[in-house]
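Hi! If you just cloned this repository, the fastest way to understand the data is to look at a raw example. We've pasted two of them here, unedited. The first protein comes first, obviously.
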Amino acid sequence: MSPVETREPDQAREDVHALADALRPALLRVSRHLRREAQKAGVSALDAQLLGVIKKKPGIGGGELADLEQMTRPSMSSHLKRLQAAGWITRDPACAEDRRRVGLRLTTSGDTALAMIRRRRNDWLAARLAGLAPEARAALAAAAGPLDQLAGDR
């Protein structure tokens, strides 16, 4: 392999690491702000995440949700008990194919809480986006798809 051929992969690797180094702090700060918006609504970021998954996948079981969120089943069980005690989810045996399994669904109250969190987060983000130049907003719009791909765990 010629020196030029070996430099190209090295340069690409350096470019990727430089991009990661530039994106990471900004993504972490945005994530932190969005978590705070959920907390202002009286919901933890994890609760908001779990409510969102249950809304997307009504009837999901606790074990499947634990696997999806990379949590232990006992830990997930504790979170689900708390969400149920808050009146945000219900355990529905009728939506499970296996009669031993219980499916999870959002209650009207859970759906309302999730909508409020999403509204707060969107309002926060929209206010920041409105302060950007049109070119910056266009760049972020173009990056939305690749960022979703990057997060790609769902």
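Ok, and the second one:
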Amino acid sequence: MNQPDLFQRTPSALPPVPSEPLLCLSIRQPWAHMILHHGKDIENRTWPTKVRGRILIHASKGMTRQQYEDAAWFAYECRRVHLADCWPVDLPRGGIVGSVEIVDCVQHWDSPWFGGPWGFVLRDPRPLEFTPCRGALGFFRHNARLDGQEEAQ
């Protein structure tokens, strides 16, 4: 019986590429950065979701100086996180910056990041190479693979 050689890069040995566009969620910077690099394990929203599984994180284009300063202050007060690694001019905006798993949606959570009224519980953040794209309110679909490459149509 012929067994596939898993050390050869044949089409059958490659990991599967999603056949459908992945769900994305737009998140303002520096919050998206804190999810990917500083342990922010909740995304606070005013609405609940039934979405579970890996989604792409889209960094919104908009971010005022006041929004950045408020988030930086909260991060320091909440987790003693200094945002010295992400000055406003260095934060990528207007595209996909990473992925994360949504594992639950809660109204109460024992996390310093929880502010409610709803929180999407996040796990396993993975930064990705920046991919420019338009965002949207709520969840939206985007044709990208988790390795940052555009999916062939």
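That's it. A detail worth noticing about the second one: The two ends are 35 Å apart (CA to CA).
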